[in-house]
Write a structure and sequence with these properties.
Length: about 280
Amino acid sequence: MTTAVTGATGQLGAHVIAELLWRGVAPTEIVAVVRDPDKAADLAAQGVQVRVADYSDPAALRAALAGVDKLLLISGNDLGRRIDQHTNVIEAAELADVKLIAYTSVLKADTSGLSVAPEHLATELRLTASSIPAVFLRNGWYWENYFAAIPQAIESGKLFGAAGEGRIAAATRADFAAAAAVVLTTEDHGGKVYELGGSDRITYAEFAQVISSASGEPVEYQDLPEAEYAAVLSAAGLPEVFSTMLSTSDAGIARGELDTDSGDLQKLIGRPSTPVADAIKPALG
């Protein structure tokens, strides 16, 4: 049984490969699909099959997925182009007669108003139309998404956002990777939709309290209008596309779109997700 992971040297993909190895999958039965083989030298040294392919290169994708039984399609980060890119991967998998595709989507993709949701939903619909059984891993937000903001919050005493009183059920990349590895190494997941969210479902005001307790410095949450928060992010040096994505995501949090009590993540990994106080330790310096 050969399992392929796209984006295998990315932040999520690297965790998935590590989880597969930890769960006893032989390195030779893992295919790491990467754009830059130099970044996968450590995987190759462990015996993992490294195959080079870009989401925009159908021929390379067909070669990379030859002989693959299960595929984890990690969503790309090229916003605005992901539907075509994901379709390229799915078509290559169909030609390779892959038996299962797991796709990293977004929480509540079919109803979400998040700016990133339409590309995820379009990919889900393409997978639903495919002859290959698919499983949707609808990941919530990563706690790591806040790492860049935490030092600023500690320094200024203010955590800025536009989420109001909305709750966020985030988890670490390692938690979501563990769930993906379970799906790839166990059976009967085809056709399933997993709404994956963390055990700590907290508001930004509560998040600020966690940061304060962990750092020993007073931090409070300051809620801003969505447009004003986007301007703050842009002023901090973020490209406009990411400032817009983060500010609209906060608006989604206010609407409850990044919160879930499904318990799907916990059931898959067999434990609570990493507590937020532990998750943010790498950002504390």
